[in-house]
């Protein structure tokens, strides 16, 4: 059986709701091929010609009285043997607008794109695989919205919180992360985006490849480009974009797993990381804020274990008072 005969068979099986999952997948694949547009148009034309005209009913909402509004029934073509036939026949109208529009619209009718939202709870990390092969490591207290498949010229996802991305390369379909007022555009690379709503800045840190960052809903003249081991920081209050070198960008390969390496980081920055990862409040004694910490914290463990390690290395003490943690000498 050649492909045209196969398409015709699968078309009729689909209309009569007799397709198996494998046959349905094959049918959609044939629809997407450029070679079968003429055959598909012919099949739907025949279906359209088999419709009969019947007056449409049930168009007046029940809360309108017949005395208030008078509606003349409209003649519409209705397929006598089921909604699937009607959907296929109606799709022929899309062909009139051009073969390209037809392929995209008919795919949306038969197999619409669905949005998925994934949330991570406090101290929870999730690893996701998107339809294009892109891998995402979602940090705690974060949300990622993405489609079950990418249609069109762009691959668009939305992030609230923090995530590490390994984007599958596709030069014809840029990958765009929308995070607040910032859009990050890549073709294929690995990088980290931190865009927690309660933080004053949005950070994009690049491990490999190249990305472009632009401000959403502004007339910012040119996107800001960064390459490996660089970071872009965007101030939420001023919308100012700052680009800096970030030689330790590779540390995010561990951070995506919850392992935080510190090489002389100031103590206040370490505390900020703990607050974000565990969604809690920590008060640090003022005289400790500029102290520097060297070591690794495993933030997949209970926060008390991280605080115990900090206490031992930094020679400090911690306690819990009225729902918040306090670190003192």
TrEMBL record:
<dbReference type="InterPro" id="IPR032508">
    <property type="entry name" value="FecR_C"/>
</dbReference>
<dbReference type="Pfam" id="PF04773">
    <property type="entry name" value="FecR"/>
</dbReference>
<dbReference type="Pfam" id="PF16344">
    <property type="entry name" value="FecR_C"/>
</dbReference>
<protein>
    <recommendedName>
        <fullName>FecR protein</fullName>
    </recommendedName>
</protein>
<feature type="transmembrane region" description="Helical">
    <location>
        <begin position="82"/>
        <end position="102"/>
    </location>
</feature>
<keyword id="KW-1133">Transmembrane helix</keyword>
<feature type="domain" description="FecR protein">
    <location>
        <begin position="120"/>
        <end position="211"/>
    </location>
</feature>
<keyword id="KW-0812">Transmembrane</keyword>
<dbReference type="GO" id="GO:0016989">
    <property type="term" value="F:sigma factor antagonist activity"/>
</dbReference>
<keyword id="KW-0472">Membrane</keyword>
<dbReference type="InterPro" id="IPR006860">
    <property type="entry name" value="FecR"/>
</dbReference>
<dbReference type="InterPro" id="IPR012373">
    <property type="entry name" value="Ferrdict_sens_TM"/>
</dbReference>
<feature type="domain" description="Protein FecR C-terminal">
    <location>
        <begin position="265"/>
        <end position="327"/>
    </location>
</feature>
């Amino acid at each position: 059986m050649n492909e045209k005969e196969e398409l015709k068979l699968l078309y009729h099986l689909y209309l009569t709701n007799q397709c198996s999952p494998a046959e349905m997948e094959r049918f959609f694949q044939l629809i997407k091929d450029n070679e079968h547009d003429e055959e598909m148009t012919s099949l739907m034309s025949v279906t359209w010609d088999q419709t009969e005209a019947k007056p449409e009913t049930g168009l007046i909402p029940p809360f309108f009285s017949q005395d208030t509004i008078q509606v003349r029934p409209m003649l519409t073509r209705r397929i006598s043997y089921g909604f699937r036939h009607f959907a296929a026949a109606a799709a022929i109208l899309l062909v009139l607008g051009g073969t390209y529009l037809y392929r995209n619209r008919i795919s949306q009718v038969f197999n619409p794109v669905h949005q998925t939202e994934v949330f991570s709870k406090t101290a929870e990390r999730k690893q996701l695989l998107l339809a294009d092969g892109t891998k995402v490591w979602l940090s705690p207290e974060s949300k990622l919205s993405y489609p079950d498949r990418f249609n069109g010229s762009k691959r668009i996802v939305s992030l609230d919180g923090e995530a590490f991305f390994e984007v599958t390369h596709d030069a014809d379909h840029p990958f765009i992360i929308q995070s607040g007022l910032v859009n990050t555009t890549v073709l294929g690379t690995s990088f980290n985006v931190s865009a927690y709503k309660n933080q004053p800045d949005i950070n994009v840190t690049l491990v490999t490849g190249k990305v472009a960052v632009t401000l959403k809903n502004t007339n910012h003249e040119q996107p800001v480009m960064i390459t490996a081991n660089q970071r872009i920081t965007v101030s939420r209050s001023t919308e100012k974009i700052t680009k800096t070198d970030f030689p330790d960008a590779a540390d995010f390969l561990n951070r995506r797993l919850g392992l935080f390496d510190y090489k002389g980081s100031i103590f206040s920055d370490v505390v900020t990381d703990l607050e974000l990862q565990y969604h809690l409040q920590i008060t640090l004694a003022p005289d400790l804020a500029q102290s520097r910490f060297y070591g690794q914290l495993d933030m997949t463990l209970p926060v008390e274990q991280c605080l115990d390690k900090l206490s031992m290395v930094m020679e400090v003490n911690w306690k819990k008072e009225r729902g918040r943690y306090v670190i003192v000498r």
